[in-house]
Amino acid sequence: MPNRQTNHSGHTVHVDLKDRSYPIYIGQGLLEKAELLHRHIPGTQVLVVTNETVAPLYLERVCAALAGFDLGRVILPDGEQHKTLETTTRIYDALIDQGFNRSATLVGLGGGVVGDITGFVAATYQRGVHFIQIPTTLLALVDSAVGGKTGVNHPRGKNMIGAFHQPRCVLADTATLSTLPEREFRAGIAEIIKYGLIQDYAFFQWLERQLAQVLARDPAALMYIIEQSCRNKAYVVAADERESGQRALLNLGHTFGHAIETATGYREWLHGEAVAVGMCMAAHLSASMGWMTAKAFERTEALIQAAGLPVLPPPLSPGALRKLMAIDKKATGGRLRLVLLEGIGSAVVTEAFDDQALTATLEHFTAAAGR
Amino acid sequence: MPNRQTNHSGHTVHVDLKDRSYPIYIGQGLLEKAELLHRHIPGTQVLVVTNETVAPLYLERVCAALAGFDLGRVILPDGEQHKTLETTTRIYDALIDQGFNRSATLVGLGGGVVGDITGFVAATYQRGVHFIQIPTTLLALVDSAVGGKTGVNHPRGKNMIGAFHQPRCVLADTATLSTLPEREFRAGIAEIIKYGLIQDYAFFQWLERQLAQVLARDPAALMYIIEQSCRNKAYVVAADERESGQRALLNLGHTFGHAIETATGYREWLHGEAVAVGMCMAAHLSASMGWMTAKAFERTEALIQAAGLPVLPPPLSPGALRKLMAIDKKATGGRLRLVLLEGIGSAVVTEAFDDQALTATLEHFTAAAGR
């Protein structure tokens, strides 16, 4: 597990990637700590990218912390449906308009969509410039801002276009969660439950016991779940930066979830909501094959439901879901690869599941959703 | 310098980049040698990308060599003006249409534009798939196919969007040069002269003596200049893959040249032609500051002219050229960085040139072009 340090009235989790290592600063009010940002900006040019929802809340504060730099800003429309190659051109245009060069730094201020797009542009502008993540949603704080996956969606597949590009630091200000709408907050809980399911049984048990405090956004509980999640993610990413093996465990529920998101055009479902259903499906399939107990499936479903997350997919046919799962990038060499559970806290990446059991799981969930 | 091997009735130059090392196979009729391709394709899915000019000449032959693979093909329009983010969507669409996954291999069959676009899509489809270069123009054989630079143009700047992504091999079939139009052939000579200018005086002298054989496309002369150029490029790339220093020497003439290309909308001037003028300008500026002799400038200009390449820019004002140079990505931190010469065979990357001398050189060339 990464080291833990306290040096800015918060905690620091280190992502250990040799010359691409970086700190995740976690704490209340970090947006005001200009020196944390400054020490990770090597040049003079900084472009802050955010969206219409986040801009009125935090953009001025971040720009104030960046006073003295040659500063630009881009405000994107809000929503997963804008995470496209077309939207990236707005950022490239701004960089060129301002004459920004290879020593420029891009700051992604917002949720997962802003972070993924901004990171992709940072990975590809002049073949790579610097990048800093300032996540403002729970999901981004605990997942998408950490690990260097960047990218945009293709109309027919999520994250089909992208690059690995590590940030120079992640600034996770827990104060930004106070303005997060309830639905988005709960969507973030899905990825937190995921860490418990794939490799941290003690964390899963803690969540079962302390969910009420988490949902009440108790500051100590938030600090704990964010740090624990970042530590879990940093551990996996350090072991397998480019997802040649182990890192794929982080995709628990995602192959099912991406199919739901693609089917609904990235509009109706939040990513975390789709992943929540996907984890239920993965747990159901795992239990139906006897890889884990029915009780473990029930605990999984119960925790997800208690977090106010959906446990059933939208009305879709099993065949439609199956077809969309096949296009997911985790498919390799024709055979579908899934992340399944051998118990709570123990996930595996496998192609060796029972195909009929998968069909039965899809039928079970789509039938239940149709009722 | 990289090793040289002979094992397929041709030569092999190795690009030494640790786990990203790869061979450049150079020889007559290599397109027919299916086993050279097969040994570098790890999966079953292959997408060949080419353009309307190259397709009728070589696409069937390459597809025949790839019989047995799950094979797709994309034929792009020909020309630098199509090297855009918009064109990449045609390749992403084809990959998704065919359900291609992370183990897929993209083959770029064509000149620099096809290679750069195909490489960029390979770098970014599902965050990176395999890539093979089959260059069919002299410029691509000796320059753009080697070294892992991929990308597309922005309407206001060349190669502004891109990634470093090394191919698994480069298959340089010298037989493809027989169909190359004379103007494109000569454009390729510009990059070959460049290697002599930046670091290989003996090669420059050889070119001065043997230019007639080269222009007559004498097979032995072609084999020699291609191998010598690939060895020079492989040497520089191995020392500095991501252009943090040394590699920038390869941009001799390019900051001037890109300004010409951008000013003319990537339509009228071939890249090699613009670089040819740019090298004359760099040599003129170097000589005017006394960094090298006037005689060295004259030899440079004479060799470029003898190769049938332009030595004067299109009608543009010095100010317009200067402005377009500033946006070039080699500009760092506000100060323009140029590759200049301290003699034939000895280039330097520098910001420490005399600004008035640059202005005088731009005025000299634009005035001469206006006559």
Automatic annotation (TrEMBL), chains A, B:
Location(s) in or outside the cell: Cytoplasm
Cofactor mode of binding and number, as noted: Binds 1 divalent metal cation per subunit. Can use either Co(2+) or Zn(2+).
One Pfam short name: DHQ_synthase
Any GO MF annotation of the entry: 3-dehydroquinate synthase activity
Transmembrane segments: none
Domain of life (superkingdom): Bacteria
Cofactor(s) for this UniProt protein: NAD(+); Co(2+); Zn(2+)
Name this protein carries in UniProt: 3-dehydroquinate synthase
Species name: Nitrococcus mobilis Nb-231
